[in-house]
Amino acid sequence: MDKILLSDATEKYFPNAAGPTMRLATCMFTNSPDEHFILDSLSDHPQVVVGAGFSGHGFKFSSVIGEILADLAIDRGSEHPIEMFSLDRFD
């Protein structure tokens, strides 16, 4: 089977959009082992707050995640139920 290049398909189906590539970027896609977010501070360094493992859909939760991470950084805890997102679940 012949390979079809994206530029060939664009030229064929969207000729007005066919032009030089302006920018390409690789996106980092991160998952935790159980595929749930990580929202916690490090036990040995509680001043370090971790928000990770958003697997490409964390942007939908960015406002509440920002609030939770700010709570963890300032108050060392959050009123949101975040137990299922703790780092120690992997111990």
Describe the protein's topology.
Blueprint: H1 6-13, E1 38-41, E2 49-52, H2 62-75
Antiparallel strand pairs: 1-2
Please tell me about this protein's structure:
- The chain has one domain.
- Helix content is 24%, strand content 9%.
- The protein has 2 helices and 2 strands; from the N terminus they run H-E-E-H.
- It has a two-stranded antiparallel sheet with strand order 1-2.
- The longest helix is centred in the C-terminal third of the chain and has 14 residues.
- 7% of the residues are buried.
Question: What are the key terms here?
Answer:
91 residues, alpha+beta, 2 helices, elongated
Summed up, what is this model?
The chain contains 2 helices and 2 strands; from the N terminus they run H-E-E-H. It has 91 residues and is α+β, with helices and mostly antiparallel strands.
Q: How are helices and strands ordered from N to C?
A: HEEH
From the N-terminal CA to the C-terminal CA, the straight-line distance is 47 Å
| Overall radius of gyration | 20 Å
* Total beta strands: 2
Please mark out the parts with pLDDT under 50 across 5 or more consecutive residues, or reply none: none
On the 0-100 scale, what is the average pLDDT? 89
> Which range does the strand content fall in?
5-15%
Percent of residues in helical segments?
Answer: 10-25%
Strand-pairing-aware structural class: alpha+beta
Q: Strand order of the main beta sheet, please?
A: 1-2
Number of helices: 2
* General shape: elongated
Number of domains: 1
What does the largest sheet look like? 2 strands, antiparallel
